[in-house]
Structures are given as structure tokens and as C-alpha cells.
Amino acid sequence: MPEDSTQFTLTRRGLLQAAGAATVGSLLTPGYVGAADAPETTKARLGFISLSDCAPLVIAKEKGLFDKYGMKDVEVAKQASWGVTRDNLELGAGGGGIDGAHILTPMVYLIANGNITKGSKKVPMFILARLNVNGQGISVANKYKPLKVGLDAAPMKAEALKAKANGDPITVAQTFPGGTHWAWLRYWLAAGGIDPETDVKMITVPPPQMVANMKTGVTDAFCVGEPWHQQLINQQIGYTAVTTGQIWNRHPEKSFALRADYVEKYPKATKALLMAVQEAQIWADKAENKDELAQIVSKRSWIGAPVSDIVARYKGIIDYGDGRPVERNSPHIMQFWKDFASYPYQSHDLWFLTEDIRWGVLSATTDTKKLVAAVNREDLWREAAKALGQPTPKGTSRGVEKFFDGVSFDPAKPEAYLKSVKLKKLA
């Protein structure tokens, strides 16, 4: 028997209120059909960073979707940085931290494996969904416009070597060592013949501070998610050299992850949270909702940036800010649900772990397949999606992935990928 016997009544009332307010239109399920489906707890504390891809958690909260599935006491709490997110996941909600988060996909593994935790303590974690594909970018300061640095980073190599020789290396920023932005920036630099280990100075900057750091001259380039690239351009400080979707089309990005102890203690609550997030992803992916989506996430409590910095790239409109024609209907638009964007493919997690091995974050002896099996809970994603009446992928791999420079990643042969890339640092 659930600890709160009134929960089913509350859930139905919340659903009726949500429907009356027309918050999500004609959505996907009538909610729970019996008290046995009610979650074991109505509480969860989830973290997020001020990035456009936090939208699924924001919409699930703002549109009453957590309430709809019985999770009426969900708190979605802003985190100052990915390091703070990690610290709060270590603590757990019971220790004053959080139960789960909008998070960089490889961070989940680095926490679970004890690579980035205090005392190298392993904190079991589960990935329940991918929150989005695409939607990140690499921007450079305006002073590099004459170099025409774009998809090919090579034009910056001579400048980087010259700056290094003068004792003032080009400084590039990412958001967390071993994370997604760290990976995209390194991949782009290395593909252009620039060694991220030796040719430039790489630093860590929280996403909301990226524009300010370039404005003051601390950084020359950065990789982060939106809306900070568009804000940079709107403030005429720099331009977008490349979107990450151009590096690897429909690449995986953030994940929705929970501490394993929460999932194991509250399996029904976990499913309820996941269904709410999935339904929010479906809503956020609809073209007719993009303007409202941008209005909602722009609030100070969420991203805290002007709608004009947010909305265009949600719609797939890319102004690179360097004179290139404005790209409309970009094939690299941020997606939350379409074509299984939300599905946490195990093959994608394996690429991140392989890239962490490439650059020495993980040991080359790491049993990556075992680690993926322990952390990736695509089985829970499937269960929730089926409850929503949504289709599920046939397998746990999207197959061989191809990058802009001709390199391929075959998840059945990650060692071959490591051999194929020229620049690397294996631990």
C-alpha cells in the first residue's frame, strides 16, 4: 500500500486541473488507472543547469506533468555548475543534495565509476533517458574572423602555435572535464590537427559564464550548449564556428539520470518521473510550441536570458554571426523526441567512454561494456514509453556513427576507433 493513501485522488485532481488549463493539449494517456499504479513517494529533487536542453525538466514542472503522474512534490533546482551537480548527486536528497539531474551524459558514468567523486567513491547512477540530440556549438572571438575558422579548425593551428611560443596560449573553454562539451571541443581541435593537450590551454567554465569570460578576454573559444552562442552573437562578441551537429549529426547530448538508490527504492515513482519527462519532450519537439517553450525557459528561475537569445535555435534557425547566410530549417536542430532522440542508446554511451579513454580520463583497461550495462537503463525507458503508447527502437544501438572528418565509430569495435584517430592520450 502506498504511504499516502490519498495519492490517487490527488493525481486525478492534478490531471483534471492540468487538462482544464489546457497545459499540454490532447496528450498521451489518461494517467494512472488504479491506486496500484501510484508512486511510492510524491517527492524528488532534480537538478538542472541553465541551458536550452534543460527544457524537458522545465516543461514537466511548468506544465504539471510531474503532478499528472502522481509526483506532486518534485523540485527542479538550479545548479551553479556541473561540479555542483556532481557534488549534490553525491550527497543525494537525503543529505541536502539531489536525487537526479539534467546532466552531461558521460558525467553519469564518471560518478558511478568513482572517477570524479570525493575519495573516488563510486556512487551508483542510472541513465533513464537522453534529454536531447544536437543543439551545442563551438564559438570563437571576433578577432579570429579573418581566419574563417569554421567546421575545419586547421586555420587556427598556426595562430595557436604562435601564441604558445609567445607564452600566451589560445585559451579554450569547456564545461566539465570528461563531459560532452569537452569531447566536442577536443574532437574538433584534433580533427584540425590541433592537439588539445599541448597546443592550446583548456579551462573549465560553467555554461552561464561563457559569454562573460569571452567578453573580458579570458577565453578565445568555447564549447557549450545554447543559448549562450546566440547571446554571444547578439552581443557582438564572437561568432559560431560550428554547431556540434555538423561534427556528428544527431549526436547524443544531455541525459536524465537518477541515483540508483532512488530508482531501487521507488520504482513506480521513477517510472512516473520518466513518463512526465518523456511527455514533456514530445511537447517540446512540436514546432507550434517553440515560441511558448522559449518564453517559459527564459524566466529568471530557469535560464534567465532574453527570449531573443533562445528561440531561433530552438526553431533550427542558425545565424553564425560571421556573414555566412542564416541557415533555416537546420538539419542539426536540437531535438528532444523525434526519431528516438530521447532513447538512451547504449552504443552512444559507449562512444563517450571510448573518447574518455582516448584522452586519458578513463584507463584503457576500463571494461566499458560492463560499465554501460550497469548504468544504462534503456529497459526503463522502454517501459515508460510503452505506457505512453509510444514506439520503441528495435535495438540498443543506432549502428555505425560517422563524423564530419570521415572517421567512423562502430560500437562493436571501439578499439578500431581508437586506432583510427591520430591525436590521442591513452592512460
Automatic annotation (TrEMBL):
SUPFAM superfamilies: Periplasmic binding protein-like II (SSF53850). InterPro entries: NrtA/CpmA_ABC-bd_dom, TAT_signal. It is found in: Cell inner membrane. Pfam families: NMT1_2. CDD domains: PBP2_NrtA_CpmA_like. Its main location: membrane. Keywords: Cell inner membrane, Cell membrane, Ion transport, Membrane, Signal, Transport. PANTHER family: ALIPHATIC SULFONATES-BINDING PROTEIN-RELATED, NITRATE_NITRITE BINDING PROTEIN NRTA. Belongs to the CmpA/NrtA family. This is ABC transporter substrate-binding protein.
